[in-house]
Design brief:
Helices cover 35% and strands 12% of the residues. It is α/β, with parallel strands linked by helices. 48% of the residues are buried.
């Protein structure tokens, strides 16, 4: 398939969306096996969420990004501004189309796999994942496929997304703004300032989707900093907040369609960082960056083959 002949699908069955989620896990497990490690648990926890967003929830136009991976010479600056913006893979900007901000930038591989599965980038582009000098970086930034901005410190992207939603509402644009967060980011004060502001300005065109997998770099979130009760906290800051099973596509879609007139919507997707790859449960909660040793490799290769039958 060439850049000029690639197909773009707008309707997916639940089974097709689930196959995309399964394929995301399998592809990233394959990367972890080949390289000895990657952000695998994030794929396990968010696969259904991101697959549902791209196939059943967000209203995006066809990709306007390059079909193949492209070279990237370095960090954008005064002497390096000639690069393709990652948001183009989610479609060209339009008043009636949605926009998607990814705050948890270490989920980049999951985004790339979803783009490939939905005809937005060449699946062969994944061969350039984390290869120096290419735009398929392990940590997503504004030049990475599917990314609107460089996230920087956690908690910043949600504010950028809310500001975009505010501007769109002032301009009368009908497209929504979606923002994906990890639950570890909820320890950032800026996140709560953002929700408070979005509630004050009645940003009902703003939807925050949280992959609540209960883990962060140091281990289980509950052992590091108390966040619950999340629903009550978000509601008290002016948002409409609902929870769902983050591994159930119907439940995710239903939650994201919850009415929220004059309020932003926050969807807490309860997930596990070992879904689809049960071997990871032995490592939980230290799953932020999963390493697979030579001794463990045969076990994980077996799971990789088993996942192939579900894709």
């Amino acid at each position: 398939m060439t850049d000029s002949t690639r197909s773009f699908k707008t309707r997916y069955t639940k089974a097709e969306t689930q196959k995309i989620a399964n394929s995301i896990r399998r592809q990233i497990l394959g990367i972890a096996i080949r390289s000895g490690g990657c952000y695998l648990s994030q794929a396990c926890s968010s696969a259904e969420i991101i697959a549902a967003l791209y196939t059943k929830i967000m209203n995006l136009g066809p990709s306007a990004g390059n079909w193949d991976a492209i070279p990237f010479p370095g960090v954008p600056g005064p002497d390096n501004m000639d690069y393709q913006h990652g948001s183009l893979y989610n479609g060209a900007p339009a008043p009636d189309k949605d926009r998607f901000f990814v705050s948890c930038c270490h989920y980049a591989s999951v985004i790339y796999c979803a783009l490939a599965a939905t005809g937005r980038i060449n699946p062969a582009a994944l061969d350039k994942f984390n290869v120096d000098g290419w735009n398929m970086e392990m940590i997503g930034a504004e030049h990475s496929p599917g990314f609107e901005n460089t996230a920087g410190s956690l908690g910043q992207t949600v504010s950028i997304a809310a500001g975009t939603a505010h501007a769109r509402k002032i301009k009368g644009e009908t497209g929504l703004v979606y923002c994906l967060l990890g639950d570890g980011e909820l320890q950032e004060g800026q996140t709560w300032e953002c929700i408070q502001t979005a509630g004050h300005y009645k940003l009902d065109n703003f939807v925050v989707v949280i992959d609540a997998n209960g883990q962060q770099v140091e281990g289980a979130i509950k052992d590091q900093m108390t966040e619950e009760p999340l629903v009550d906290r978000f509601e008290s800051f002016g948002a409409k907040c609902v929870t769902c099973n983050g591994h159930d596509i119907d439940d995710i879609v239903k939650a994201c369609r919850t009415g929220h007139k004059n309020r932003p919507l926050v969807v807490i997707c309860r997930t596990h960082g070992y879904t689809g790859v049960p071997l990871l449960k032995k490592k939980w909660p230290l799953l932020h960056f999963v390493r697979i040793s030579a001794e463990e490799r045969p076990e994980y290769e077996k799971v990789y083959e088993e996942l192939g039958g579900k894709c």
